[in-house]
Structures are given as structure tokens and as C-alpha cells.
Give the backbone structure.
Amino acid sequence: MTRTVVVTGGGTGIGHAIATRFAEDGARVIITGRRQSALDRAAADIAGNVEVAHFDATDADAVTAFAAEIGPVDVVVNNAGGNTDFDRTSPNGLGDVADSWRANFESNVLTTVLMTTSLLPRMNGGGTVITIGSIAADKGSGSYGAAKAAIASWNIDLARQLGPRSITANVVAPGYIADTEFFRDVLTDDAKDGMAASAMTRRAGTPQDIAEMVQFLASDRARQITAQTFAVNGGEWPSR
Ligand SMILES: NC(=O)c1ccc[n+]([C@@H]2O[C@H](COP(=O)([O-])OP(=O)(O)OC[C@H]3O[C@@H](n4cnc5c(N)ncnc54)[C@H](OP(=O)(O)O)[C@@H]3O)[C@@H](O)[C@H]2O)c1
């Protein structure tokens, strides 16, 4: 049976790789994001059954309208987000600090919670919700790391709620992943090399590294795995 997979932020970077991986498996893949142009480019790139929907996932009405249109869903990948501080100047006063924290909360937590909440009534048993967290939740990175840590906590409660419906919920937490729009133009080549070298594997992660983990968690091989956070960081931040 053809599965329906929603990938938020599927027009670029990690989301694009995840959408490609599911499309290769023959799924119906719906990619979302704010920029129609990025989504159209991705849909043209990816061979397979790909649909696009452009809206801001922090907008509750837009998310509600999207969910009402798409029918039953098997896999939700909450990938939209990023460190909104890269788009801001350094805070000048407490008002700016408040704005910066709100922006990272909205971009990473609200997008995820609104999308998941709106799609839950439409999810088939045997489905899964996978949310992209970050190594920043453990290493610390201001309001961005705090927002990603909040997602991991929320995921535990989500998994408890969904278990009786045979739906799993997990977080995949990448380390440094190259070749996405995440860092904007902020990082120098030296900084990128330094981040890659800090992994035990001595390389940057790729969007495909994350897509493979997501695909596994959404497969029949992972039905007893839920309420967990999985690091994909080349050993940059070890765990027991
Ligand atoms: N790259 C890394 O090193 C790294 C490391 C750890 C975690 N992550 C996480 O991985 C995820 C994907 O990031 P990426 O590296 O692939 O960067 P990216 O290329 O910037 O992808 C982020 C995507 O999210 C979409 N998006 C952002 N805010 C949105 C909103 N309010 N509504 C709808 N769509 C929104 C963007 O599209 P529009 O701008 O068109 O909306 C974009 O396609 C993010 O959650 C990020 O925090 C990345």
C-alpha cells in the first residue's frame, strides 16, 4: 500500500534528502515550506510522487487548512526549523532578547507541535512521527538549543499518547550537517572544517545520513522503538 509522508521544510537540505529517500521507496510525499520556489525546485529534482504545499508552519490557521486537504497520513517528519539567530543582529536590549527567544521557539517548537497536533487525527495505525532535533540540545546553544531540548521532552509525552494507536514518535538529533541552508552565509570555511574535524569520524554529516535514520525509524523494522532521541553526529557528542 502506498504510504503518505509529510516532510516539513522538505524543499531544502535535510528535508529534501528525507523526501527523496521516501520517494525512492514509492511513497506519496508532501513537502512543505514557506517558499514556493524552493518547493517547486525540489519537486522537480526528486523523481517520484511529490506534492508541494507552501505555508508558514507557525501559522495555526494555515496548518489547519493544510491538514484538512491531504487525507490519511502514515509518516510525519517535523524537519522545518533552524537557528533564527542567524537571521538577526546581536540583541540590543531585553526586548531583542525576548524576540530572539520567541523566534527560535516558534520556528522549532511551534512548527512541530502545530503540525503534529493537526495531523494526529488523520494518522493511520502503524505510522510514525519523527522530529528533527539537534546536538545543540545537549551541547547548549542559547535559545536554539533550548528549543530543540523542548522538542525532545514533548516527544516523550507524544509517544505515550500515540503508543496505544500503534504509532511511534522519535527524535533524530543531527550534529553538524553540511550542504544545507542552516548556517546561511555565517560560517567561514575554517569554521566548517573545525566542526567537521570535531566528529570522531572526522567528517561533516550529510543530509543523507539523517535521511537513512529517518527512513529506518519509519520502517516495519522499528515498530518497538519509540519515545527516544537518536544522535547522528559522528561521535561529536557521545552518549552511553
Ligand atoms: N544543518 C545542521 O548542521 C543541523 C544540525 C542539527 C539540526 N538541524 C536541524 O535540521 C532541520 C533542517 O535544517 P537544514 O540544515 O536542512 O536547514 P535548511 O536547509 O535551512 O532547512 C530548513 C527548512 O525549514 C523550512 N522552514 C523553516 N521555518 C519554517 C516555517 N516557519 N514554516 C515552514 N517551513 C519552514 C525552510 O523552508 P522555508 O524557508 O522556505 O520556509 C527550509 O526548507 C532543522 O530543524 C535544523 O534545526 C540542522
